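Following the same procedure, the fold was encoded as tokens, giving this record:
***
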Amino acid sequence: MKKTIDVPAVRDGLWMDTDITYAQVPGWLGNTTRDLKLTVIRHFQTGDDKRYPVIFWFAGGGWMDTDNNVHLPDLVDLAHAGYIVVGVEYRDSNKVQFPGQLEDAKAAVRYLRANADRFQADPDRFVAMGESAGGHLASMLGVTNGHKEFDRGAHLDVSSAVQAAVPFYGVVDPLSAKQGSATNDFDFVYRNLLGAEPEAAPELDRAANPLTYIDQNTVPFLIFHGTEDKVVPVQDSERLYDELTEKHVPADLYVLKGAEHMDVKFLQPQVFKIIEDFLAEHLK
């Protein structure tokens, strides 16, 4: 069979840059230096001044293990919808305690903003998105614009601010997440993150709680959580939503019926359409 067909170009082609070093941090027992990496899914160059909004993705793993590439195949839909998607490696709690993870996240944002021309990125439309422990990072980025105490490393001449936050079943208050979980299998992750049990260290717990920082600089939030989450209680996302709306921060909360922690339901086209619509409304 031989056919000649006319194929219209209805979407961009995509490149994927891997192993981009965005920061160097202390390595083995503080005696060496190690790289932190990004993977960037970006669009074919257009030869003009077209810019794309950026979604920074922070994978979960209980702050115990991270893989910045693990969900990128699922997020290609968002790249085809017109976004640059950046998978961010951040240090786990075996290497650094909080706020090291937030410092890494902000360093990644600064790197992309400093290199916006290289990636055709729009530096005024940056989105923090993540799941579970990565959802906690997304929330922390969304509430700490202007908090210079978390800016460490290179590119300090540019801002680490984001313009929207999209946490998926993210940890909010480490203490309430630990106490409200339906299982105690993961209680140790909060001690590892903070360096102490959250109930025994209220100041450390407060410092790692996004609710602490909600103010006039807090960005719009789109929150997802499942009704059957046994790891991070849905009540924590409901409390985050309530606190945001009480302080007049634009926020939407979608509770997915029957969804468990890290459920495939969160990766469906219906969810991505909600994300696209929310970002279209709030990224002006």
